[in-house]
Design goal:
Low-confidence stretches: none
Number of helices: 0
Mean pLDDT: 89
Number of strands: 13
Structural class: mainly beta
Length: about 180
């Protein structure tokens, strides 16, 4: 077990076009993951691990009762952004029945959370699936008159108290909405 139980995001793990407009692609090491440094609960890919398609491996949930995978990025004022996660489930996934997963986001530390239940995950997709779906996107509206324009977002299931496992988090995407 690591000396610090939570995995802290590594800034170099965010793939971007080097502009504040994005898109921003969060690889598994770009997330803050509660209990992420404890191998009993999560398997976080090493910095150098890439699969055959030159894509970072997924962070794999062994078991937790508190799912919290978060990221943050600065936004351009006066622009709307779309947030999605790419996730899948292992064949032996467990504990997800009656444990709804939510995508939540806010702009600024003192901002108000916007949230969406990710019903697409209730059927435990085995192939990497982008959620929410394209036909029902999660949009953070324009940031107006706010000094702190940093976006805070995450994947959460902290309410059921159930132990769950088998989730793979491949990436998150934050992109400017046209």
């Amino acid at each position: 077990m690591a000396s610090k139980p939570h995995h802290d995001a590594e800034a170099g793990a965010i793939i971007t076009t080097d502009t504040i407009e994005g898109p921003f692609i969060f690889t598994p090491r770009a997330f803050n993951i509660v209990w992420g440094n404890d191998s009993r609960y999560w398997r976080i890919p090493s910095r150098s691990s890439l699969n055959n398609n030159n894509v970072a491996e997924a962070a794999e949930l062994n078991q937790v009762s508190w799912l919290e995978v978060t990221g943050s990025v600065p936004l351009m004022p006066l622009a709307s952004y779309q947030i999605s996660f790419k996730v899948s489930f292992k064949g032996d996934a467990f504990g997800w029945s009656g444990a709804p997963v939510f995508l939540m986001a806010k702009v600024g530390k003192k901002g108000r959370y916007k949230w969406k239940r990710l019903k697409e995950l209730e059927n435990l997709p085995k192939t990497p699936t982008e959620v929410p779906s394209y036909d029902n996107p999660f949009i953070i509206d324009e940031v107006l008159n706010q000094p702190d324009t940093r976006l805070y977002f995450g994947l959460y299931e902290v309410w059921s108290g159930k132990w769950k496992g088998g989730l793979r988090v491949h990436e998150a995407i934050v992109k400017k909405k046209n």
